[in-house]
Design brief:
Layout (H helix, E strand, L loop, with lengths): L1 H22 L3 H33 L3 H26 L15 H37 L1
Helix pairs in contact: 3-4
Length: 141
């Protein structure tokens, strides 16, 4: 087992060195992204996620509902992070006539709407089933 770990360490270090060597010519343009990403995360994203999680824990007391809402927020954040480069920056090359042009803001809006509609449906069904179970328990008493 020790030999396998050592082999994985050596292979991982070799791949990391090769990636760094390939990045070296582009380091000037990549450095702001390599530094800006963690700084932006630590100063903006992490505190915002913490505050939203704290507010969610105070506002939603049912654990199942809170889990579904948290999953929706996580999926929404992922969609937004994927969409940022497509929405922010203009295309770097002329459009390819073989590829269909896309309306990225509309696609993001539809994706978020479908996601939250599904979560609302799940929450409504869960609430309905929970009420039915409560009604049956009170009828038997």
């Amino acid at each position: 087992m020790r030999a396998v770990r050592l082999l994985l360490l050596v292979v991982g270090a070799a791949f990391t060195a090769y990636g760094g060597w390939l990045l070296l010519p582009q380091l000037g343009s990549a450095l702001p992204w390599l530094i800006g990403g963690p700084v932006l995360h630590d100063l903006l994203v992490a505190p915002l996620v913490g505050l939203v999680g704290l507010a969610l824990s105070r506002l939603v007391t049912n654990r199942l509902r809170r889990a579904w809402i948290a999953a929706g927020l996580l999926a929404s954040a992922t969609l937004l992070l994927i969409a940022v480069p497509l929405l922010w920056r203009p295309p770097s090359a002329p459009p390819n006539p073989g590829l269909p042009d896309r309306d990225y803001p509309l696609g993001l809006t539809v994706g978020l709407a479908v996601l939250w509609a599904a979560i609302v449906i799940v929450l409504v069904v869960a609430t309905t089933l929970d009420r039915r179970g409560t009604d049956r328990r009170t009828d038997r008493s």
